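Bump. Still looking for Hydroxyisourate hydrolase structure tokens.
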Amino acid sequence: MTTLSTHVLDAEAGRPRVGVPVRLERDGEVLAAGRTDEDGRLRFAEELSPGVHRLVFEVDTPFYPEITVTFRAAAGHLHVPVLLSPFAYTTYRGS
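Sorry for the wait, here they are.
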């Protein structure tokens, strides 16, 4: 079983980014969608099948209207944080 969560942090403001729309996609199909909560987090209820997936974050910064993070799903829980600023972002595989 593979599960997925994400966390969006506003590095400039030093706090979570609330209400960010996030889509989970595979092969051009939207599998799930939601918004980050008051802590900037979103946990997807759907189990992921092995393979390549995409998270699309509608961040609407001055430079980036959206961020797409493409990743390969394997067994276990995956956590994909995004650290966001107006003109840059960082992502990594969290725990």
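The mean pLDDT is 95.

Edit: fixed formatting.
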